[in-house]
């Protein structure tokens, strides 16, 4: 029966010609291919010195932003924790005392704020949920590898943006 | 006078020994670099500038590793194996002429360690001793895979030595001498043996790959089938000695091929260059020094070719290996002898009447 597709191929074990049986032309051909690769541009990226370029919307390590006066923007509303599909975010809220206005922007603030980087899937939903524009995923930092599990739970000490000290001019 | 020659020979032998060790050391580096380049990688580049200290780091690592000897192994032979391999490999570069003569003051220095009149035989004898190192090591390990590797090494070396020797006979018919120095001198200028012996060179080249256990003939140490072959049980610097001996062997075989077929230290227009100098001594020395450079360039080209082939071709099957050696290379080598003999007869007939 004639097949409907034209993919059928007649195969036959044909006798090799003398030049094929000598193998030397084939070997020379192979040597040609390898020497071509010898001079080719290398695919390697020398990692610690060079890094692969990341996309501009890369979602890396989180940061808790401060406002223009250096006060923390986060009000501990918990929307990020609710939005988080991996349940990586926990926090406890506290009330701002008198004289702490330069530290916290709103009357309520996060006393503790923890993200478990082992749970986090870096989806960026916390960033979208935040009504105060307090949490962002940076495009230039990663959560580095560590030896202990509890070192992956990032508290406020590692999440809050450091104060810009050089601004007082 | 005699003491000058003696001291000179001692220094020269030490220098050749050092150079062959150095080349073997850096062969490991270049092997890795070339492998990497052919596979579109960059290779070792962490130790020193461009990874140039990598061989030292490797050797340091090997020295600090555990010196393991299997419980049921024959201890003496187990230690002797890599020793023999290394000794024999280092011995064979003694008769290779790395250059012509240097004239300093009154004295003429030959740039060859020992000018024996049976140089080719010496190389053959010493190189075929090298397989004892592998065999003893493989047998003494008391391990099936090591033994299999050793058996393969032995049978492969014996099979390919035949074809190698036969292909060499054609060269010896042309030169009429077994001394490597005489063979080198006969190829002055561009009168290289490769033009007269292309088939012989091809056979010699293939056999050289087999003799040094290089891919595509690296069956004695095929890790896929035999774990590591004859050096399965070896660790630390004893393993390093085996690997080192292999690289020295490659260096020696490259030097022999350059001497026998590619005119050793001779290069085109060397006579014109020599005559261009007013002072014949100066001209001679300049040509000799250039010749040493040319010799090493040829050796490095062969070493590169060895590595290039290694990262191109897959390994032979054992029956293919034996078939190639006995059924193809030996008849071809005999045919080459006949052709050479006929050629010499015809040449004599037409030139001498």
- From N to C, what is the helix and strand string of chain B? HHHEEHHHHHHHHH
Distance between the termini of chain B: 47 Å
Average pLDDT rating of chain B = 85
What class would the helix/strand composition of chain B place it in? mainly alpha
The count of strands of chain B amounts to 2
So how many helices of chain A? 5
Instruction: Write the element-wise H/E pattern of chain A from the N-terminal end onward.
Output: HHEHEEHEEH
Determine and state the CATH class of the domain at 61-159 in chain A: Alpha Beta
What is the global morphology of chain B? globular
Content of β-strand of chain B: under 5%
Number of helices of chain B: 12
What strand order characterises the main sheet of chain A? 2-3-5
Instruction: Report the principal-axis shape of chain A.
Output: elongated
Q: What is the CATH topology descriptor of the domain at 61-159 in chain A? A: Alpha-Beta Plaits
- Share in β-strands of chain A: 5-15%
Strand order of the largest sheet of chain B: 1-2
Explain what the structure shows.
The complex is a heterodimer of chains A (169) and B (353). Chain A is elongated. In chain A, 20% of the residues lie in helices and 14% in strands. Chain A has a domain at 61-159: Alpha-Beta Plaits (2-Layer Sandwich). Chain A is of the alpha+beta class and 169 residues long. Chain A has 5 helices and 5 strands, in the order H-H-E-H-E-E-H-E-E-H. In chain A, the strands form 2 sheets. Chain A has a 3-stranded antiparallel β-sheet with strand order 2-3-5. A two-stranded antiparallel ribbon of chain A has the order 1-4. The model of chain A has no long low-confidence stretch (mean pLDDT 86). Chain A has helices at 18-22, 24-38, 79-83, 125-129, 156-159; strands at residues 62-64, 89-95, 108-116, 135-137, 153-154. With 353 residues, chain B is mostly helical. Chain B has a two-stranded antiparallel ribbon. In chain B, strand 1 and strand 2 form a beta hairpin. The longest helix of chain B is centred in the N-terminal third of the chain and has 37 residues, at 2-38. The radius of gyration of chain B is 22 Å and the shape is globular. The mean pLDDT of chain B is 85. The chains are: A alpha+beta (169), B mainly alpha (353). Chains A and B meet through helix 2 of A and helix 1 of B.
